[in-house]
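hi support,

uploading two proteins for the ticket. first:
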Amino acid sequence: MQFETDPQSIAAELPKLSLVYEKHPLYGVDLFISGKEAASDLDLLRQNGVTTVVNCAVNLDFNYVRQADLVSDHEGSAYGPGEIRYYKIGLIDGSGNPDTQMVAAYYILRAALEQILPEKQSYPRRDRGNVLVNCRGGRSRSVIVMALFLHLTLPSEFVTLAAAIAHIRERRQLARAEWYKAPKPVLIEAAGRAAEWVRLIEGVR
């Protein structure tokens, strides 16, 4: 029988920020996972060279705008470029996501690493650095999206999706007692289907 554990006590035991892969060979950057606490801590992100955040949680948002007047037509407004580049996937931590959303999550994370911003005043945040993938607790949605990404971009190192999940569980220091729901089984199943679809899209057997 599996017993629910207090989420706050579990979160307290996890590192605030976890380096899950150093210097990805295709992109040359470090990849991190966290919950909301690290994703909202701009000082911590800067200290770790994080310039891009990919938020996997539909029920969580951040306001990274500190200088709304950095772009001329944003002056005096409540919006503007954030202090870092910010991408949103918006997964539910359980059932309810369309299957195609996990495919989209993989491509959004790739876009966060590959997108080249134009040299224009309206695109002031062009720094390319390390990437953080987050959700509320950094235990389920962010883990499965990162695992799918590692499995598909480094197939010789992570031959299976399960191998990528195991690697991230270790690097994130997820408690073994929580593995049955970190990440959620329904998300693992969706990621497995997404991996097959991506291979079909890209013509990889």
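and the second one:
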Amino acid sequence: MSSYEWQFTILFQYWPIFLRGALTTLEITFAATALGLLIGLPVGVLRQARSRWVRLPVSVYVESIRATPALVQIVWIYYCFPILFGLQMSAEVTMIVALGIHTGAYVAEIVRAGINAVDRGQFAAAKSIGMSSLLALRRIILPQAGQKMIPPFINEFANIMKLSTLGSTIAVYELLQESNNLIATIYRPLEIYTFLALVFFLITYPWILLSQRFEARLQRRA
């Protein structure tokens, strides 16, 4: 049996460090989510366009983002943007932009799936009373699809929160990076990583639970 002596009490004196990391994590999460919605909502709608020339570029964006790891996207933006575009962003802004672009592709798929889940006959009914495709989409299809999108949107938000730990690779002082710095100071990796896992569970699981409840409510209404 291991003789390791756990010393969680030592972590209490470093609570400002964990708080600072948690605030940075939440800041990145909320900002990246907002950017992802701004990108993903119109892209998801455009993926339903009849014109191939409209669908093609947005489909390339969605599939290329979904086919590459988020870490590669973060590192590419951080190191390649200054070279290619002369745009040097801070590490935290890079994380927001990279995760926003990453999330936008998944939000677009959620929107596309939500629209496809609505009975296609409702498009025909809307057109039969003189509505344009855009008006039918705005007034009839999206309000119904939006209800179905809520659970996956919440899940995606929780996923962004976990992906924010990738910021440690470019020295963003979120929870993981702050924890790594603290380990280098007090040499208690087991306690710190265990506590870190607990913190992420506490800030992530409520969103997952909320998503499950929304989904269960929608199933009862169906």
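thanks. also noticed: The radius of gyration is 21 Å.
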